[in-house]
Amino acid sequence: MSKKKYAGDKTPQETWDLLAENPNAQMIDVRTDAEFVYVGSPDLSSLGKEPLQVYWKIFPAMTVNPDFVAQTVQALGPGAGKDTPLLFLCRSGIRSLHAAEAMTAAGWTACFNVTSGFEGDKNKKKHRATVNGWQVDGLPWKQK
């Protein structure tokens, strides 16, 4: 029997619902600054929340951020317990999966990967934001 590496996957809509229902739930957007600025980010303002931004990979080399866990804990602040629901988001659900695994390995028990991410999978023409993901699902988002 294999042990689950993190709490599980959530669709963008399930993520929104959990953020709305649980006042302690936090979204951690693990994308780069360029993605935040030029592509956009989830708009959680109607929930009284903002996504926390902690890079999983450091641009431009795209190496894994060795301080990811410590930076995430710092961004969460002292009120967050290791059972706080953490919902990790990236472009397509790959970096966020690794981030959820890393935080689970650090002892956090409710780490979720947002499947299909912000922009989703590529279509037949290799374009994103057309198949699935936060934007395609019609959830609130904004550009800076």
Summarize the structure.
The protein is α/β, with parallel strands linked by helices and 144 residues long. It has helices at residues 12-21, 33-39, 68-76, 95-105; strands at 8-10, 26-29, 41-42, 52-53, 57-58, 63-64, 86-89, 111-114, 141-142.
List keywords for this structure.
144 residues, alpha/beta, Oxidized Rhodanese, domain 1, five-stranded parallel β-sheet, two-stranded antiparallel ribbon, 4 helices, 9 strands, 17% strand
Topology record:
Layout: E1 8-10, H1 12-21, E2 26-29, H2 33-39, E3 41-42, E4 52-53, E5 57-58, E6 63-64, H3 68-76, E7 86-89, H4 95-105, E8 111-114, E9 141-142
Protein described:
The chain is of the alpha/beta class and 144 residues long. It has helices at 12-21, 33-39, 68-76, 95-105, and strands spanning 8-10, 26-29, 41-42, 52-53, 57-58, 63-64, 86-89, 111-114, 141-142. The strands form three sheets. It has a five-stranded parallel sheet. A two-stranded antiparallel sheet has the order 3-9. Strands 5-6 form a two-stranded antiparallel sheet.
